[in-house]
Amino acid sequence: MKRHDSFQYIPRRTLLAGMGTTAAGVMLRPLFAAAAGASPTRLLVVHRPCGTFLDAFFPSGGDDTTFTLPSILQPFAALKDDMVIVDGVTCPRDPGWPGDKHGAGMMTMMTGRRPIEIPGTSSGGDPNAKNQTAAGVSFDQLMLQKSAALQGTSTPSIQATAYRPSSVGLPVFKVMSYTGQNQPLFGESRQAILFDGLFGTAMPNLSPERAATLRAREKGVLDFVNQDLTRLRGTVPKSQLPKLDAHLAGIQALQTRLNASAASRGALSTCRPPMLAALPTQNQTDDLTVDEVQHQTLSRNLMAIILTAFQCDLTRVATFSFSAGNSLIRLSKILPNFTNPAGHHDISHQADQHAAHAQADTFYSQLLAEMIQNMKNTPDGDGSLLDHTLVVYFNECAIGANHTIENMPILMFGGKNLKLQTGRHLWFGGKYMTDVWTAIGSAMGVPMTTFGDPAFNKGTVSGLFA
Amino acid sequence: MRNILLMRTSVMAAFTFGASACVGTVGSSGGETTGPVGGASPGGVVPPPSSGGACDQAASLVPARVWRLTDQQYVKAVSQVFGVVVPAEVTAPDTQPADFTNLSEIVSIDSRAAAAYSTTAKTAALAAVTANLGTFLPCGASDACVQSFIRNRVSRAFRRPVTDAEVASLMSLYHMGATDGVATGVGLVIEATLQSPSFLYRTEIGAPVAGGPKARVSLTAYELATAISFALLDSVPDDTLWKKADDQSLLTSRVLAGEIDRLMALLEVQENLGYNAGFWLGVERLHQTEKETSAGYFPEFTPALKQELYDSSRLFVRDILTRGKVTDLLTSSRMYVNDDLARIYGLPGGMGSELVAMDVTLPERAAGILTQPAVLAAFSRPDRGDPIHRGLFVYNSIICGTTLPEPPANALAVAATFPTDASERELASLRATNSNGCGTCHGLFDPLGLATERYDPIGRYHAADKNGAPIDASAVLTNLGADVDGPISGLPDLVDKLKIGRRVSDCAATNMAEFVLGRSVVTDNSCSLQESRNQLAASGSFRDYFRALLTSPGFLTRDGEN
Q1: Is residue A293, in this structure, part of any structural domain at all?
Q2: What's the pTM value of the predicted model, to 2 decimals?
Q3: How far is it, in rounded angstroms, from Cα A372 to Cα A47?
């Protein structure tokens, strides 16, 4: 197994932030973030699909600090004191709503609002309609919008997914982040694109003059594109404006990245990009799909990129999905002792296959545990990167077979600087995920009493943070 | 294309348009009826759209819009204009969705896609100037020659003449890069071109006006050429079509019809139509199909066989779309076969690895798309058959049955009470007869699937099971229409019933219109749609259908917004 932790990471936030106001109009990090070299707080939300086997996920017996880890959580044994098991939380969703349940699960967990149909489309009465989109902003993006302490990096936020088919087409199963109603941010599954976007524009080993020339050219190209977009925008019907506005935001993000790359260059001169394992290639004589062949390596690589982006302070907000609610990944092709031959989503609908459900969820526990451990091993400010990162790990369903919404299997990690009460199994019976989000938002300096649809808020949970 | 219930990756969103303006009388058809809609809803067959009576001659088929290129269109256009092939995944990975890829209201460009376009444009620009700089600048590196390159090539990428202002902007970009040499300068022009909305979006807004068109507008000659070209070639207009747009002659009906006939005769057009129809006819679903290949299951289903099956069915669909008749969809006994397929499917071989067209004499391969092994395999589970989804395929994609409601919340709980060792037929019977009402919907499509019971999960035919007992492929069709309902003894019987009337033809027309228009056409009162549909029913030829649709008045205009 190839990991990125063969590198020595040297956080250089102070240097980075110190380059604040070079280019005109560039917003870099607010000054207080750099004050005294304090580490910024980061937010990472991770999703894995298709529900779980609850009996093997939540501890039974013991009090909230002396519980025994059930089989799915065993991979987190060494991280028990960095973890909170969030029990009893309900997904803010009505199971009776038409539309795809995995999609609705993802959207409601992330936005706290009932999904809407993509404007201009109709489900045509199809009860499992896939033309759903989020009705509002997702929690990660809301935090980015509201919290100055999360802003100002060269890349505002990262969205990634290790499930390639999930990047195709409609947002329904796969998008975690929305900047607003029907404004999906699709997860990137191509490690090279994600890598280049974060580390590529830093242009190491160039003279400042040369780097400035190259940036001026890129700026020229983007200016031309921007001009054309503005012209076109003036000639289309209203119904078409959202498409072009999303594009405009995309171009602006590229401009921001370009403007910030002078600062990134300084940071990356000492903070090195991760070394990624080569993705295995598909062997035509095998019976594995490309997605199956690459699933583990791609997951590790994408998480390594996120880790380094946090560490180098190129971004402070990230969402990552291992796979989508319609996952076709056959874990039997990845794990030697996994016997059920069907794809993950199919297995989740085999109601009696508890062992397979537990085994599948344990597989993702293992991958996430590696990431969390690596964050814990990465020095950052006065502690570790994990200390300064709040990780939320969730699933779009509780039980996959019938897409249940009660007792959502949720974990949290890190957050020491926010005083997250780790090492506990906490029961929030009857509370919604929105009530967990409001607690997190308040802890992160964005006081809130509700998130999403007020009808799906019962009041902020207490006891999560000291 | 109808959504298929419970399919994991079916991503259809049915668009509605023009419904409120409908003045036609649904069901008052010019001769064809499909009988009752099965009593109480849900279910039944959609009454065929009106083909007579009042329809709106001038109705536009779609509203004014911008329409992002698909990744495949992007790759083809870059290749056609700048002579280089970029990796197939531009904005999305290479996995195929199980639906038309070109729906105009779904694809948009977010920051992730914008970043991907930026990266790809750099790659393409570098490759293009490395390989083709001499071709781009036949007159040398003078500013005049670079300007001429911009006017010629960038216009083709934009599918309209570039403006003087655009030439000036691109020239200043050129000069910015040219400090490192001509190639870098030209590369920068290409980079900007490939990220420009003028390249990335097709426009269907008529001559541009501020705020967008307010009333019905005609497509410009360039927009019309673009619309035809993307429908048939999936790429930008070729030289001939471009000239007809440039001199405006494309706006005359004679030239327009002539261009469509010319294009339809091109092999790449035939390949393209076959490929896109594969999203409707289940062929593209094969990509997402996996089989259990351990001993005792289907070890034959190797990646190589899967690819051969896919190629074979794609050729079959191509032939029907470009040379065949709509009736061939259910009655053709043609297969594309090589030695591998011959061995596994019991056909005469000896042709080597090349796929060769063969009119198969086996009766079990005589039901067109329904007996293509790729399609049978695509609608099966990894380790066993799947009459539900085979039935839904026929119900949704072949006869355009009405949209069905969701399985109720207790569906899985009910299914869990069925004996675990029950056969598919026994399960279907339990679904049909249990007191929870599963049969209301399953009764519509399960019988259609049961008619394929003699085909295993990789599409092989077995008259008898492993104990030698004949496999029962009989079924009783109910609530699909008086002319169809009743007992059938298997697939041939089913086909005999379905091919009556216009049911399959109209469903085919609806699906192909959705592909051409990038939107669904569930309801309409447009004479253009009705007449092209009638054309398909009358002549049976898809070629005639495409000609009728692409030359119809409704295809030449777009509705603005007040």
Answers
A1: yes
A2: 0.69
A3: 14
